[in-house]
């Protein structure tokens, strides 16, 4: 046998042995070819598929989408592609990855290739590549990046938003208020005589008090609010769509949430109170820094008036 005579059988062997699916359909979506990968993963051999409309043995295929895809290749004579990110799979094939990967079926990339004869498309060859491993790795990477971003936005001691994230959110909300108006308020508060707590009970107890206080406050704020640690024992609360009168009610709620019950730390009872300053966005407030400055001034006014109270600057 000459090499030329052997080539057709070699090409057939390659098609059968490649590690991805290959099938060919005509314009009516009748199956003309079905390779071993497709047979192994579908459970249907070529003799059960070839010569039949593709949707008969596979009624769960996205029929309208697939028909449009194939028709576009016939009409335009150009390649088409479908990524697993756009459509996770074409065929509901099982995959061999751990079930912990979070995918139900093999994730697939599909290429649609025109088969030409005398400049006319006579059939479309579709390849189906198993990209399950790639998709799982990418999902895991995206989850890891999101987790790292979350850690970057969180205060290491209390787990609430850190100052950088709080200030970014404040800038967003203040810009929105400048464009659309409405209401926007800010609270600044800190724990009264916190240095004495550290001096009397130790820094470990002081850290525990900060964590407990943050948990208490986080439990009473709204989802749309942003609660963050400014540094040390100073905290901030961003209140979108909140006028100053309502902000003062929130300030009093927080003050009581912090101070109505002492904190138990390593068998020691630590009494805690807080002073709160409130400010609201209004004409004449030039920017985020000015709003924070007014809330800070209100906070120090609360301290001068005896602490454990809420003060607002209107």
From TrEMBL:
Q: What class of enzyme is it?
A: transferase
Give every GGDEF domain span. Answer: 182-314
What NCBIfam families does this protein's entry cite?
A: GGDEF
Family matches, as Gene3D superfamilies: 3.30.70.270, PAS domain (3.30.450.20)
Q: Can you state which reaction this protein catalyses?
A: 2 GTP = 3',3'-c-di-GMP + 2 diphosphate
One annotated GO molecular function is: diguanylate cyclase activity
Q: Which GO terms describe its cellular component?
A: plasma membrane
Q: What is the lineage of its organism?
A: Bacteria, Pseudomonadati, Pseudomonadota, Betaproteobacteria, Burkholderiales
Cite the EC number: 2.7.7.65
InterPro entries per the UniProt record, alphabetical: Diguanylate_Cyclase, GGDEF_dom, Nucleotide_cyclase, PAS, PAS-like_dom_sf, PAS_fold, Rev_trsase/Diguanyl_cyclase
- Report the PROSITE patterns cross-referenced here: GGDEF, PAS
User: Could you tell me which residue ranges the PAS domain spans?
Assistant: 14-55
| Entry-linked CDD domains | GGDEF, PAS
Task: Name the chain's protein.
Answer: diguanylate cyclase
Q: Name one GO biological process term.
A: regulation of DNA-templated transcription
């Amino acid at each position: 046998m000459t090499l030329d005579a052997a080539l057709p059988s070699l090409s057939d062997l390659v098609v059968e042995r490649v590690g991805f699916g290959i099938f060919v359909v005509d314009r009516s979506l009748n199956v003309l070819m079905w390779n071993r990968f497709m047979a192994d993963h579908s459970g249907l051999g070529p003799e059960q598929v070839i010569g039949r409309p593709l949707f008969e043995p596979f009624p769960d295929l996205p029929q309208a989408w697939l028909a449009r895809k194939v028709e576009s290749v016939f009409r335009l004579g150009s390649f088409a592609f479908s990524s697993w990110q756009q459509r996770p799979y074409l065929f509901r094939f099982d995959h061999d990855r751990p079930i912990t990967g979070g995918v139900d079926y093999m994730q697939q990339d599909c290429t649609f290739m025109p088969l030409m004869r005398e400049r006319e498309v006579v059939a479309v060859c579709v390849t189906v590549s198993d990209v399950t491993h790639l998709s799982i790795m990418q999902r895991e990477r995206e989850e890891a990046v999101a987790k790292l971003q979350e850690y970057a936005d969180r205060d290491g001691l209390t787990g609430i938003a850190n100052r950088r994230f709080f200030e970014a959110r404040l800038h967003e909300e203040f810009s929105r208020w400048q464009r659309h108006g409405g209401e926007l308020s800010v609270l600044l508060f800190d724990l009264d005589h916190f240095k004495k707590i550290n001096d009397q009970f130790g820094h470990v107890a002081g850290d525990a008090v900060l964590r407990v206080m943050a948990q208490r406050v986080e439990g009473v704020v709204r989802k749309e609010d942003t609660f963050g640690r400014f540094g040390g024992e100073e905290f901030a609360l961003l209140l979108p769509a909140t006028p100053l009168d309502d902000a003062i009610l929130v300030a009093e709620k927080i003050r009581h949430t912090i101070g109505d019950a002492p904190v138990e730390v390593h068998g020691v009872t630590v009494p805690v109170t807080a002073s709160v300053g409130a400010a609201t966005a209004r004409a004449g407030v030039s920017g985020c820094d000015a709003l924070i400055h007014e809330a800070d001034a209100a906070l120090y006014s609360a301290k001068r008036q005896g602490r454990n109270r809420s003060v607002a600057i209107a």
